[in-house]
Amino acid sequence: MSNVLELVDIRKSFGSELVLKDLSLKVPEHTATVLIGASGSGKSTLLRCINLLESIDDGQIFLDGKEISDPLINVDEVRRRLGMVFQSFNLFPHKTVLENITLSPIKVHGKSKDEANTHAMHLLRRFDLADKADQYPDRLSGGQQQRVAIIRSLAVSPRLLLLDEVTSALDPVLVNEVLSAVRDLKSDGMTMVLATHEMGFATQVADEVCFLESGNIVERGTAEQVLHNPQNPKTQEFLKRVYQAGRL
Amino acid sequence: MSENQDSAWSPSSREKERRKSRRAISRKQASIAAASSIFVLGTLAVILVTSPGWETVKTTFFDIEYGKEVFPTVIKGLWINLQLTFIGGAAIGVIALGLALLRTTKSPALTPFRFLATAYVDIFRGAPLILIILLVGFGVPALGLKGVSSNVIFLGTVAVVLTYSAYVAEVIRSGILSIHPSQRAAARSLGLTSGQTMRFVVLPQAIRRVVPPLLNDFVSLLKDTGLVSILGVTDAVRAAQINASRTFNYTPYVVAAILFLLITIPMTRYTDRAIRQRTSAQNSEGSI
């Protein structure tokens, strides 16, 4: 199995604050890597660095074996192969659901409008949102908006999907519909890196769970190992607090 | 929601009592408002009409017969103002958009243009419009350049366009800067280039957001076209001035003012409504 993504000794700081410390990670094809850790542990920053929305201070990022942390790389070309879903959805409020989804296929990937619409409608039907195609995002519930955002990132058939706490802005009832959409992607074989606070969900989809603490992965392994039998005292402490909050 | 209402429901006797009380209260409030308005406005009218100078004011400012006589020339002048507003407005829109885009671009190739756009905005936003009109209107013909029109209407329009483009560019730029960076991040993560992000994601939202302040500037523009009268353009202001200085009766100025107000008041009302709608739309999104 080849690695879709490989991170080698990633270092990133904002001013004097070191956010990622020599972090390394391999993401094989068709696997889901789940990042857990307290807020501020660097999960979101890591995802933004992979997407080149943030530049790194040292280390290397490889996408399909090609280094994308090279400053001479065409970032637009790299992002065409990556999908990203944000915690706050970030749908375009002036465009309908269908227009949100087809913008990139038409303008970036050169698809015809018909072709893009057909594919978008196919995805909308699959995620049970076909009747919302002509609605504007502010008419949709949070769960529906997030599912549209997922479809939007899928519409360009990405090599790798990055999901940044996609359920954190949703109430418990809506969380489930979004998580079930992500589970569907996992069973389709989509390669994913996700940051999440939903430990039960992590157990279900993760091929590898990484626990981040102050910008480094202090423990990694299967969900069984990391979430149910953690070895590192910091992981144990974190999971104890999650357990006390009733989130496991 | 209405279909969920129980059709068999009728107000209880307690609710009927309350409604009666509410009607009584609003009747009382309406009569107080009417009485107070009649008293205050009536008193002001009486003071005005009985004041010693009233007759002179009436004949010098509100001479209806003279007003009717000058009306055709003033309204002909107003037509010039309107033409100037619409032609100038279109040019301002295009130039201002270009300036705003230049000022917000990060492209290294456009660095000198970004610098020039900033200097332009600083100069024309800071200098009084009337100075620019005098400089362009009298200064440019004095240069005697070949191929440059010395038509005062044209030069007056150019001066107004130069100044207003700077103002409107800043309004559009503030709209661009008001779009949350997460929108840009979402667009870029979909592979859109920075130019495509601006064109398809940022600008459409920014323009929508600045429509109310732009309408406001449009009203100001209409009024400020009156300033080109100093170049000798026979607009509404100039037409009124010619008539007033001939007879020392100032009714033509009042006629011109009323004509401007007939256009600007509905426009400002419309602007206020647009701002209100924009604000309430944002409230329902909970983004305040």
Structural overview:
The complex is a heterodimer of chains A (248) and B (288). Chain A folds into 2 domains: 3-81 and 159-244, Rossmann fold (3-Layer(aba) Sandwich); 93-157, no CATH class. Chain A is 38% helix and 25% strand. Chain A is built from 9 helices and 10 strands. In chain A, helix 3 (97-107) packs across helix 4 (113-126), helix 3 packs parallel to helix 5 (142-154) and helix 5 runs parallel beside helix 6 (172-188). Chain A starts with a strand and ends with a helix. The mean pLDDT of chain A is 91. Chain B folds into 2 domains: 10-47; 63-279, MetI-like fold (Orthogonal Bundle), CATH 1.10.3720. Chain B has helices at residues 13-50, 54-61, 64-104, 111-126, 129-143, 152-178, 181-189, 194-224, 236-247, 251-285. In chain B, helix 3 packs across helix 10 (251-285). Chain B is flat and about 75 Å long.
| Total number of domains of chain B | 2
How large, in whole angstroms, is the Cα Rg of chain B? 27 Å
Considering residues with a beta carbon less than 8 A from a beta carbon on another chain, report the largest interface and each chain's count. A-B, 26 and 19 residues
Number of strands of chain B: 0
Mean pLDDT of chain A: 91
N- to C-terminal distance of chain A: 31 Å
Unreliable segments of 5+ consecutive residues of chain B: 284-288
Q: CATH superfamily name of the largest domain in chain A? A: P-loop containing nucleotide triphosphate hydrolases
Biggest sheet record of chain A: 6 strands, mixed
* Order of helix and strand elements from N to C terminus of chain A: EEEHEEHEHHHEHEHEEHH
- What fold name goes in the CATH topology slot of the largest domain in chain A? Rossmann fold
- Order of strands in the sheet with the most strands of chain A? 6-7-8-3-9-10
Q: Could you estimate the helical fraction of the residues of chain B in percent?
A: over 70%
Per CATH, the architecture of the largest domain in chain A is 3-Layer(aba) Sandwich
What Rg of chain A do the Cα atoms give? 18 Å
Largest sheet of chain B, in brief, is: none
